[in-house]
Amino acid sequence: MVLQAAGEYEAAKRYILYRAEHAKQRKERPIPEPIRAAFAESDRYFPTQLQKFQFYDKYSRFNYELGRRETWIETVTRALDYLHELSEGRLPAETYERVRRGMLEMRAMPSMRLLAMAGAAARRNNVTIYNCSYQPVESIDSFVEALIISMSGCGVGYSVESQYVENFPRIRRQSGHAPKFTVVEDSGEGWAEALRAGLQTWFEGGDMRFDLSQLRPAGAPLRTKGGRASGPEPLRQMLDFLRARILARQGSFLRSIDAHDMMCAVGNAAVSGGMRRTAMISLFDYDDGEMRNCKNGDFERDNSQRWNANNSAVWPERGLTQIEIMRQLLEMAEGQRGEPGIFSRQAANNTKPER
Q: For position 346, what pLDDT does the model report?
């Protein structure tokens, strides 16, 4: 009804046919009673259908041994087993049981990233259980780390303030020598090493070609991390974008807008099953006009990667006048997108908990 009301008649037709076909398949191949009972036992913990949908859509991992998705009880057990492993069983057994009951009944929750990635994925790379991160963009490592973190499903906050971007070396002019050649391994580490090698080569005046034939095709299942492989195309597009942006500054230096666009392009490579899984926030100097206006006008045509990050100007140490604050708020309202925001580092430092 919603699709029809929106005029999406073809989509509505396909959805109706899809539902009818799957209803037919369920009759022809009924769900085994043990599986039905396992899911029924778990489903009683969901107060609403929306919560149930969100769980199966985002947090229930596919169990290859059982040939099906996890139930809520199985997901809680997996998460608690991992917490027990991390704490090396130091707590009394009744404490772990209290935590398990609290999670089952949704009275208490761990990090939702931990709920999704606890187990093999987190053992392989514990970044997967964190929600967000932050780093200044001041070296090649910044881009490589952003790729690793984004591919782990963790948000990336970064700063392209001039005090950081000015640390990049001058980009040497292209030497004209034959390009280097590297084969990219089919792993997150392989992608990261390819990015590092490319950046180092382009900054030093060389060129590089990448063999992506070892990468698994788009849609292939990712058994450890979950989801589907993006195939080689997102990596190819990211490397091409970064190469073009760096070579455009031969003999000069990266500007803050360059570093920002390159970080956003790195975020574009973090794709699973055709869906972007990147969350970014970019901080910039309050008086940086290029960054302030980077989402104005028809930027999407040539710089669609900028959608990956929300942007905020950093409150300058000198402070802001009331007129400057009102002008900033008016700019946000007129832009009709709530950007750029204002970030006060001093306020953040004053309110953060002691460590």
A: 86
